[in-house]
Amino acid sequence: MTFVHTDLQREVAALLVEALNLDIAPETIDPQAPLYGEGLGLDSIDILEVALVVSQRYGFQLRSDDEDNVRIFTSLASLADHIASQRVG
Fold this sequence. Notes:
89 residues; mainly alpha; Non-ribosomal Peptide Synthetase Peptidyl Carrier Protein, Chain A; 49% helix
């Protein structure tokens, strides 16, 4: 199944696939599906890796002690929304 993504969601999905060596096409990631656990099946190490590549790519820190992390990493859509709100430039 292919999902409709915003440009940023498409970019972040490709980043996830590349950073984590996922064996799926970025356009098959449901923007509303959970990233952690059941949906995409990421674990805490994967989330740390995602935080690192997002920080490198978009120029802001995702801190492990941020109380918003649960919300930020809920789904591809929530991660893309957070990036959009934090992005420099």
